[in-house]
Amino acid sequence: MISTIGIFIGASFLTWALGFPVRKLLERYNYWDHPNHRSSHTTSVLRGGGVAIVITQLIAICFLVCPSHPSFGWVWIVGILALTTIGLLDDKRDAPISLRLGIQVISSLSILLVLKGGDWTVVEITLGLALMVSFVNFVNFMDGINGLVVMQMLLIPMGLVVLVGSGSVLSEPKLLIIMIALVSAGAAVGFLPHNFPSPKMFLGDAGSVTIGFSCAVLVLWAFSTASSLVLETTLLVLPCYFYFDGGATLLRRLFSGEKWWLPHREHYYQKLVRSGISHGRTTMIIGGLQLTVTFFAWGILRYQAAWWIALAGVLVIWGLGAVCAELLFRRSLKK
């Protein structure tokens, strides 16, 4: 218990402290995100601050994962470094989408092949690749208001700790997953004062893409060690907010003939803000729904309910949230 609390607090303090020199460097090299008509923020904010979280995660992977799982650990580290580098370039001046997507695909595919490629079919690897790359980009799309992505990057790893740690006997991989999840959650807490409620820095592409990648790796790692279909399903429902909001918005824009790759303000969280709800309240509303999903998933696992109930339940939770956001937004347009 003491060691887990120590890991969490240590990661929090380290990330908080790293935020100050990272902020100075971003200011020096002019990493300002200036608002435009598609932005949810109204003042200029530094982007790229998520590098502070990335550094903390890199240290943890290097010392906790690499000694016992060197191939997996170093592929993870190389993927993080590649994504952070292209992210910093994109935060400074737009990098070609083909280059960004190519690095995401190579990094994700490498993780899949090293983690459990020999035991998965081509179809499973293809599906895993699609889920990882889409998740990374959906996380990036959501880094538009104060604290939203950072809060989710706190709650999803903590959900992993709850679900993975619910077993009576914890194997060595599960203990490592819990420790890295605690580091990730602690790092998110440490970054929150720099990002919420008054933002001094956004994660930027260098942060959101990279920590989204590490979150996906953590979920995938936990999934690969799961001993039952129920546990597999409950693990997969944890990151569903990003798929639901990002996927629904993407499909809606595709069907309406819009250029889906351009910045916009059509996500459900953006509609909540546009309806008059503050950034802070929007973040807390979505965080509350994520907590509801986590407790629901834990209940399904605890009582070994049917796996499909977990999927149905999470669709209902986020579906109701989306409907409420849409209704509030449409009502605000009539005023």
- Subunit arrangement of the protein: single chain
Number of domains: 1
**In terms of structural class, how would the helical and strand content be classed?**
mainly alpha
Shape: globular
How many beta-strand runs?
3
Share in helix: over 70%
Going across the major beta sheet, what is the strand order? 1-2-3
Rg from Cα: 19 Å
- The residue ranges in which pLDDT falls below 50 over 5 or more consecutive positions are none
Residue share in β-strands: under 5%
Order of helices and strands: HEEHHHHHHEHHHHHH
Major sheet attributes: 3 strands, mixed
Overall mean confidence score, pLDDT: 90
Question: If helices are DSSP runs of H or I spanning 4 or more residues, what is the number of helices?
Answer: 13
- N-to-C terminal Cα separation, in Å? 53 Å
List the helices and strands and how they pair.
Blueprint (H helix, E strand, L loop, with lengths): L1 H27 L3 E2 L11 E3 L3 H15 L4 H23 L4 H20 L5 H21 L5 H17 L7 H24 L5 E2 L1 H22 L3 H9 L2 H16 L12 H7 L4 H24 L4 H28 L1
Parallel strand pairs: 2-3
Antiparallel strand pairs: 1-2
Description:
With 335 residues, the chain is mainly alpha-helical. The chain has one domain. Helix content is 76%, strand content 2%. The protein is built from 13 helices and three strands, in the order αββααααααβαααααα. It has helices at 2-28, 51-65, 70-92, 97-116, 122-142, 148-164, 172-195, 204-225, 229-237, 240-255, 268-274, 279-302, 307-334, and strands spanning 32-33, 45-47, 201-202. Strands 1-2-3 form a three-stranded mixed sheet. α6 (148-164) runs parallel beside α8 and α6 packs parallel to α12 (279-302). The longest helix has 28 residues, at 307-334. The radius of gyration is 19 Å and the shape is globular. It starts with a helix and ends with a helix. The relative contact order is 0.14. The model has no long low-confidence stretch (mean pLDDT 90).
